[in-house]
Design a protein that fits this description.
318 residues, alpha/beta, 12 helices, 8 strands
Length: 318
């Protein structure tokens, strides 16, 4: 294990049976220009597939084991922070990875501005044949960095609910923090949305946050119909509860035609047409479900139902 004085960056990763993806994740860390000043803190929730044994073979990784029944996106990440020795803490997940050797270096660079308390990057989907080609990353620009800060809590609260939401597009798949900021303002113990809510609280507190779309990790979950429906519903529900904003945007019938057009344009296998039809249909269904619950004052009943059905990602393939 490394000398704590050498560690500048701590990478916190919740893990549960991650052997299918962890080697790729670790390879990305090993390629980092700041590897010598980096540690990885794994919070393992009862893996039984060899993940723990594999991770313990690396001298820059330490594994903290917890009872899987106690896992919680917010609370578990807070626990991870207590085991971090770095001044900066990167939050990510076991199935995300990077091929950018200066990924950590460019994130840390934003903290030269002493007002910056967090930096959020972008997750993208690689051009792999087993991944939905309609979701492949096709950038229209090189990306850029944007700093967001409000002088007072009142200044933030004068924004419309939609504007508040747009300022808080935070993502713990690829977010770095000053450790002290997480000590002073820990995550709420939530099963979903701890990152978005943290961004809201941080901006209310007067912290400066940076969104840098040039800092990217690859990350993909196969969207089988049930996953799409639940994920969209839970995400939009959380946004409604957190920001009092109902994001009614969804697909229209023209999008079905666009799927067919793009499938031919990009020379994709025919199977992806039906797959993306299912995504559109379930996105529309989830949006309608939430809209109906709001209209009919059944939001509390929906909240009770969703609390037990937070969907997890899948590596399934068509």
């Amino acid at each position: 294990m490394r000398n704590n004085k050498e560690i500048k960056i701590s990478v916190v990763v919740p893990v549960k049976n991650g052997m299918d993806t962890l080697p790729r994740f670790i390879e990305g860390i090993q390629k980092q220009s700041l590897l010598s000043s980096c540690e990885v803190v794994i919070i393992d929730s009862g893996s039984d597939d060899g993940s723990v044994e594999y991770l313990k073979t690396f001298d820059f990784i330490k594994v903290i084991s917890i009872d899987p029944k106690t896992f919680n996106h917010g609370a578990t990440r807070n626990l991870g922070v207590t085991h971090c020795n770095g001044e900066f803490v990167l939050m990510t997940v076991q199935d995300a990875w990077t091929t950018d050797t200066k990924f950590l270096e460019r994130m840390v660079d934003h903290f030269k501005d002493v007002s910056v308390m967090g930096v959020c990057g972008q997750q993208v989907i690689p051009h792999h044949k087993d991944k939905n080609p309609h979701e492949w990353f096709r950038p229209q620009s090189k990306g850029s960095a944007k700093k967001v800060k409000f002088k007072t809590k009142e200044a933030f609260l004068t924004l419309s609910p939609k504007e508040q939401r747009l300022s808080c597009g935070w993502d713990d798949v690829v977010a770095m923090y000053r450790k002290q900021a997480l000590v002073d303002l820990p995550f709420q113990p939530l099963v979903f949305g701890e990152d978005m809510l943290w961004a809201k609280m941080a901006l209310e507190k007067g912290y400066a946050l940076v969104y840098d779309s040039t800092v990217r990790v690859f990350h993909y979950h196969f969207q089988f119909p049930e996953y799409t429906y639940k994920r969209v519903l839970i995400s939009k529900f959380f946004i409604y509860k957190c920001f009092n904003y109902f994001d009614a945007r969804t697909y229209n019938y023209k999008d079905y035609i666009l799927i067919v057009y793009r499938n031919f344009k990009w020379n994709c296998a025919p199977k992806w047409i039906l797959h993306n039809f299912n995504i559109i249909t379930n996105h529309r269904k989830a949006t309608h479900t939430l809209g109906s619950a709001i209209k009919n004052n059944k939001i509390e009943a929906l909240e009770t139902e969703l609390a037990l059905n937070i969907p997890q990602g899948s590596q399934n393939k068509i």
